[in-house]
Amino acid sequence: MGSYSVFLSDMMVSGFSTGAAFHVFTLQIQHILGLNLKSYDGPLKLMYTYRDINKQLFTANPVVMVISAITISVIVFNNLIIEPWFHTKTRVPFPIKFIVLTAGTLLSYLFNFHHKYNMRIVGKIPTGLPTPTVPPIELMPKIVTDCAIICVVAFTVSFSK
What parts of the sequence cross the membrane (predicted)? Predict the structure, then answer.
């Protein structure tokens, strides 16, 4: 497969990367809008997901949307303004993602966003490493297609450069 991937054009690799980015965006947009959508399997799952987003768009949680917009704006501002200036002073990157995560966690805890604004939270995170177990076999049909697609895209992108 490695020798065949040399023949893939940059346009094809770019298309694979764009398609993967579109899938990631589709999976994340429901969380940015604060929607609870059904998960689909199969070749038209993106279309079904966008259909459900359009149906539920007016039930989106405005507080989640504002927090998402602020978070994205802060990270983009950091990447465009702060990070280039900070890079001239030191080689250590500015820890904006850690700061945003810490601030969001503190604000959510202090102002009880979970109950006041019906926001989903992670909840209690167990400490330590879990004991290794074999994954349930009944999950295989649900993930095998996605795994194969990710494998082909990752392999193609890594070997074509």
Answer: 20-37, 58-82, 94-111
Longest dimension (CA), the chain: 57
148's CB contacts (< 8 A; 6+ apart) are none
pLDDT digits (tens, 9 = 90+) for 19-72: 888 888 988 999 999 998 888 877 888 899 999 999 999 999 999 999 999 999
Q: Is 34 exposed, middle or buried (0-12, 13-18, 19+ CB in 10 A)?
A: buried
- Do the beta carbons of residue 8 and residue 160 sit within 8 Å? yes
**Long-range contacts formed by 145-154: CB under 8 A, 24+ apart:** 145/41, 150/20, 152/16, 153/16, 153/17, 153/19, 153/20
DSSP string, 112-123: THHHHS------
Residue-wise pLDDT tens digits, 59-118: 999 999 999 999 999 999 999 999 999 888 888 888 999 999 999 999 999 999 989 998
Q: Which residues contact 120 (CB under 8 A, 6 or more apart)?
A: 34, 114
CB 27 within 8 A of CB 50: no
Contact 33, 48 (CB under 8 A): no
Q: Is the pTM of this model over 0.85?
A: no
